[in-house]
Structure formats: C-alpha cells, structure tokens
Here is the input.
Amino acid sequence: MKLLIVDDSLIVRRAIERNVSWAGFAEIRLASNGRRALEEYREFRPDVVTMDITMPEMDGLTAVDAILREDPAARILIVSALADKSTAVEAIKRGAQGFLLKPITPESLRDAVAELLET
Amino acid sequence: MLFFHLPLLCLGLAAAYGYWWHAGTLSRRLESVQRTVAFAGRMSVHAQEVQTALLLTERALGDGVPVSEPLYRLQVAADRFNTIINSFNEGGEAVEPDLGRLMLDAIEPGRAFETLQQLNVAWFELKNRSDLVIRRESQKRLDAAIARSAIEYSLAQQENLAKLATEFATHLETAQQEAIAKASFWRNVCLTAATLSFLAVPAVFLFNRARWARDIARATAVELETKRAALEENQRVLKEHESALAAAQHESALIMDTVQEGLLLIDSRGVIGSQYSRESAAILRQPDLAGLNLLSLLQPLVTEKMHATLVDYLALLFDANRKERTVLKVNPLADIEVNFSNPAGGFTTRFLGFAFRRIMDGPHVGRVFVAMRDITAQVELERRLREEEKKKERQFEMLLGIVHVDPEQLDLFVKLVGSELESINGALRAEEFAATESVEARTRLRERLNQVFRSVHNIKGNAVYLKLDYFQKTAEEFESRLSELQGRSKLGGDDFLAIVVSQARLRADLLDLQELRGKLTGLRTAGKASAAAADNILEQLSSQATELAGRLDKPIETDFDPLALAAIPPERRPLARDILIQLVRNSLAHGIEDVERRKKAGKRPAARLTLRCRPPGADGLAGFVFRDDGAGLDLARIRRRAEAESLIAADSKLSDGELAALIFAPGFSTAAANDGNAGRGMGMDIIRHHVVDEVGGEIAVRSQPGSFCEFACLFPSETPAVLS
Amino acid sequence: MDEAILRVFSVCAAGYFTRVALGPATVGTPYLQSDGDSVAADFTAVIGITGKRRGVVCFAAPRALLQALLPAMGEANGTDALCADLAGEIANTLAGNARAELGATFMISVPVVIAAPQPVPTFPRDSICYVLPLVWQGHRAAVWVALHQADETP
Here is the structure.
C-alpha cells in the first residue's frame, strides 16, 4: 500500500505522514501542489491520496479531476480548511472519497484514513 | 466477303478505339478544368484573407499586443495568392492544402488572359503594400498608418479583385469548354465512323460479333456521355458550392476573428459548436472551445447557486413551449461575476454579460446563439459611480447638517472627535489586554468600557451642542451598545467587537466630515479672531441652554460674563466648552426645579445660570465658575443612588463633602430617564477626568440645598504642555 | 463590515488553538488599526479575499509563539522556515474555516508569508482594518481583518 500526501504546508505534510504510521503504508510520497501531485500520481500510482484544496499552481479540486480522469479508481481524501458545506459536497461530487476538515488532529485523521481504507 | 467486310470491321474497331481514347482524354481534361477553375477561384479567397490579416494587424497594433500572428497569416495568404497567379502567368505548379498540387499552363492570349492582366495590376499593388507592412515590422518600424494604407487599398480593391478572379475563372472555363468542344468533334467523328462501319458489315456470321461491337460502342458512348454530363454538372455544382462556401466561410471567419464579442452556438446540452468567435475563447480563457460544454466551463467560475440557475435557464431556452421573449427577459446571465482561478494563487474576478437567441429547427429549438462580453470595466465603473453617489448623498446629508456651524467650531469638533477616537482606540488596545479570566482582568475590561463611554459621551455632547444631528445619532447608537455591555455581568474581549464596529462607523463619518470641511474652506471666509471665538462659545452655550430648557419646560435666564473664559488659554477653550456643555445639561437635568416647585420655594420662575471668570490665584490656578440657582445637590438622593450602584456600602459614614464627591464617580447618575439630555451617568465623570486627570487642574463644588449649586473648574495657569 | 463577521474570525482563531494547541487562546479587546500602525510581527501570513467581500485577512505572530506551537504539530525544531509555514497554515485554516459561516463566496487565496524585517503591505487610508488580538500561553498574536463588501450584483 502506498500513500501520496498533497499539501502546500510542509508541517501538514509531515504531520499527516507521522500520524498514519499505524496504517503501515509501504511507501509514502509528498507533493506540495496539485500539478506536482498529478506528476507523482502518474509515476507512483499510490493506493491512497490525501489532498489539500487551497494550493498554488493547481488547486486540489482540479487535481482530483485530473487524477480521476487518468485513474477512475483513485482513492482520494480531501484534507482542507474550507469549511463551507458546498466545498465538501463539490469534492465528493468530483469523486473524492472523503473530506476531512482542518485543523486536523491525530484522531480525526485516523478516523478518516481508516474509513477510506475500509472502502 | 471477308475482304470486303474486314476493312470495314477494322475501320469500325479503329473508330471505336478512337472514341475510347478521345473520351478518356476528355474526361481527364474535364477534371483538370474543374481543378484549374477551383485554383482560380481561390484567388479571391486569399485576397479576402489578406484583408482579414491586415485588419487583425491593425487591431493588434491598436491593442498594443504582438502582431506576429496576424502578420504570419498575412504572409501565408499573400504567398498563396502569389503562387497561383504566377502559375497562371508563367506556367508552373500551384499548391493548395486542400486541392493538392496542379501543373498549370501559362494562360494563352484571349479573354482570360486580359482579365488575368487586370488581376495582376490589382494584386501586385496590394502585395506591395502588404509586403511593406511585413518588411516594416521586421525592421520594427511598423505603425498603424502603414497598416491603414494597406487596409484602405485592400478595402477599395476587394470587390474588384473578387470580381476579376471570378471573371478570370469564368473565362478560363469557357476557353477550356471550347477546347473540349473541339476535342468532342473528333470523338463524334469516331463514334459516327464506328457506327457506320459496323452497320455496313452485313455478314450474318459476323452479325452477332458486329452487333456486340456496336452494342459496346453504343453503351460506351452512352456511358461516356452520362459521365461527361455528370462531371460537368458536378463541376458546376462544385464550383458554385466552392465559391459560395469559400466566400461564406471567409466572411464568417472575418467576422469571427475580428468581432470584439464572444459569439458561439450551443446545443441543448450546452455543447459549443465548431464555429465561434476568437473573442469567446479569450473571454472563457480556453484555447479551443469546439465540443466543450459551456455549462461545465462556467461551473467552476460561478457560485453553485448560479450554476444551478444556469442549468435551469438552459432548459428554458430550449423549451419551445416557452415564449422566447419571456425567457429572454429573465436572463440571469446579463451580468454575472466569474472567478477564474489564478495560476499564481487566488482568483481573477471578471464580470461577463451573456445574451441569447433561439435558432429554430422546425418546431424545435435546434441551437441557441450565445453572445458574451467581458463587462468588467463597465461593472467596476458603475460600482465606483454608485459608491461615489452614495458617498455624495451621505455627504450632502451631512453638509445640510453642518452649514449652520461656524467653521472654526467645526474644526474644533473634528479635532475633538479625532482625539476621542484615538483615546477609544488607546483604551481598547492598551497593552495589558485580556490577561486571563481573573477578577482583575474583568475589572480592567470594565474600566476600559467606562473610558470608551466617556469619550463617546463627550462626542455626543458636542454634537448636540453644535446641532450635528448626524453625529449625535451615531454617537447615541454607540452609547446604547456600550450601555448594553455595561449591563453584562461578564465581559470578554469578544464583547468589544460591537464597539470596534461602532468606532469604525464613527471614524468613517469623521473622514467624511473632514473632507467636507476641506471643501467648505473655499466657500467661507477665514475664521474670526480667537477672542471672538470665545464670545461665540458663550453665545452658542447660552442658546443651547435656552433651547434645552424650553424642551424641559424649565425657563431660564443666562448671565454669562463675556470675559468668563478670558482666563482660559485659547487651546483649552474647546475643553472648557465641553465641560460647560456638561454642566449646563447637568443643571437643567438635576439641579433646576420645575416652575411649580420654584414658585412654592419663593423663587423666580426662570432659573438663573451664571458664568464668571476666576482669575489666576495664588494657587497658580485660573478658570471659571458656573452656578445655577436650583435646588442644589440632593445629598440623601445621592446616597441612595450610590448604595444602589454599590459605590458605597449601606449605612457607611460619609461627610457631606464625601457624598457630594460621589457625583464624580463613574457610573453614577441621579436622573431616571435616558433622553439625551443627561442620565447616561458620565457627565460629571468626564469633567473630573478632563480637568483633574488630564491637565492637573482642580474642580470644586459648592452647594446650598434649596438655593444653588456651583462648580469651579480651575486649570494650571501657566501654558500647559499636555492636552490629549 | 459588521460584528458578525469579526466574530467569525475571533471564534475561528480561538477554536484553532483549542483544537490544535495544548490550551485555548484568549481573545483580547479588538481595536482599529490607525494610520502608521504596522503589523510589526516576526511573521505575518496574508490571505487575499475575493468574492462577495474583498480585502485581506492576516495572521501575525511572533517567533516565540510559533516556536511554542510547533511541538504541538509534532515538529521538534523551530526553524524560521517552519515558523513561516505554520503562520501560513494558521492563516489558511482561519480563513478557510470562516467559510462555514461566510459561505463559498468568501474566496481565499493561498497564504503569502512575510517575515520581518520585510515590510508588510499597508492598507489604503480609507479602508478600515480591525485588529483582533490573541494571547496564547503568554504570547501575543493578532488577526487582522480588512474587508469591504462588494456590491451585490442583481
């Protein structure tokens, strides 16, 4: 199992990385914007992606579209601070499997990743 | 018999072969003619393209964008035209992307030749001018005038060029037809010879074969004739279509490329057709629109609600049962905000205007024609104008409220409001904010609230004094928010949000007032001397007191010494005035009895307010003394009130002097009503704050129950350094 | 701009510290920025706002606060790069969370973090900028809110 973590904040990327050790991902890669995420996805083919929305160069929702166009089976968890309901609905509509609101805590992240892995 | 028939048969066969050969050649020539004419027709198309490219070049020059793209188009079109016309002139290979290559013979003298010569004249002049445009650009010396001259020539010659090109094609065709007709003569001779030869062979044994040969010849003849007719028809139709299509296509291309509006067609699902104006791609920021869905393109740009509305509206547009006029009237896209996500982060906000028209396909709406424009500049201008308009209205209202005020007083008011706002901000942003939830912190927040209240109350007092209703209203609203907070048992930083918002409003009003004040300066003569200003303060104070007394139904007489403020340095006069406003209001609200009670007490019905100067004394203090002949301080009532407000413990032993001093405590008030005259409980507090705390003066109160109350406000008489 | 919007930011800011950090932050008394005031913090994260309201929202914090907060995020070293990253992430979270109340038309940009002594952008003189001070474990930070409402389009 492989994980791709996409966020423009290094702290958040590392925090997610540290807090998913329980899930036993064989390899984890990090990307700092949507465009890099797409490139990594092509090369790395992760089983799970965590995706921020507000990022430079390419935002997370656009990246979700692009990834799902190439791999409709991609499993993506949105991790964003955008707290309005319509953003969450939009993300799910575009094909993300989960939505986790920032700020994240170890518990909230654990629940969201566990739920994603079940499906 | 065979000797006789054999030559005939041979002749017949030879003639049949001749017919075959001629027919094949004819058919090939027909095809060649068709292509030659098509090449000739292309010249008018290229001439039009040259014009389009020139127009685009001019537009690019005007817009200040690179001209390389239109110039490339210009070069290509001119080259193609040139290749074709030269092939006709000298013979050679002409090439067109969709027609392929064709060897052309030089045109022989004749009618087509004459037209070609005219065409040469018109074309080479146009080419010279286009070449100049291209050359100038390569030397970086291209200007609009050069492009314009080429365009003007092109516009003038366009019709002529098109006419000549068509004429040339027609002559060419006629000439070729004549050649074909000549060739047809020999074909017909062969046909006749073959037929006669075969008919002339009577031999029975050859009959079948002869008939067979004849049948073939006839069938071939019929087939060839049909083919020729079909080809000719084909060629005619093709040529018609070709030229009509080319003209139409290039006209629409010209329109689509140069029109400054986004134009496109959508089907009922919102899919964009293959023809759309260049501007639409620019507006939607997509390189290629054909086949894309307009709704999907707009979805990420507009709000979710707007997108849902769009989907519904599209359904209405395509619903032929709805009247088009009705549907167009409710167009929700006449003016919408779109937000393009910016690659560098953030968004670019634009405003787009859409217009629609149905294109009917029988009883159904086949497509919808969409016109769109980027109206950002317009919308922003309108918005700015609206804001300006609103501001003007507000300022006008304010202007009406200030014209009666002496400019100098207005300046003082502006200064006062400014400094009070600063003091409010100072109170709110004091360093030791929000140090946990201790009792001490809460007390400090409360103190801060009181400080803010004092400032606002002072602004209000001055606004009332100057009859600045606008500010009075804002200050009153501010005060009621503060009162509400004062009533709360627990205060947090959050509770001050309402206050900071009121403060912002007051600051905005002040900015408007300052701006207006600046405008008024030119309209009015410069301010009077400052001694006159002192008179003015007393005059205003007197009239305000009389007015307030009238409202309270307590008649008064004012006895203000014209030199009452002489001992106050000019820079302190605004403060003196603020204090006097409070004292007058205080007297009228608390001290002075109503007429009935005054009569009973044996006093004159009209109360007397007195103001005198207190010259500098041995204590180094100077100021004024204000006195009313009202009921004096009601010490019993002060005690009750102070107990109720928990300022003192019940039954605490206090001297009369100590009781009197309570009226200067924050939050103390003896008036029941909150009516803008007194009663918000901060009046005396403000005076003490300004006189004692701020400038180190003194304030003294003397009172004789039933007969008078007197306040002395004294300031250090040397020139003071500090004044907030 | 009204009190309700300021309250949203005040609540979001306090909420961030409660959720992420070891203790809640106290919101101090808000005030208006006056001429000549500058953010004057070690790190200032600026977020551009577009949509129905336009302007900026900033989070300004001293190095000490960020360094004290980093361990709560699992970071052992408080380098300046991480401090800047954290300031940006806090600003992004505040502004993003505010959309729960203000809706999707409150559009936020990615944060731009300015470290002292680089100058912080100034606000136009007639714009009103509110300062919401915060105290967390003895460190002071502030949320700056300068927004004006764009006219409603019909």
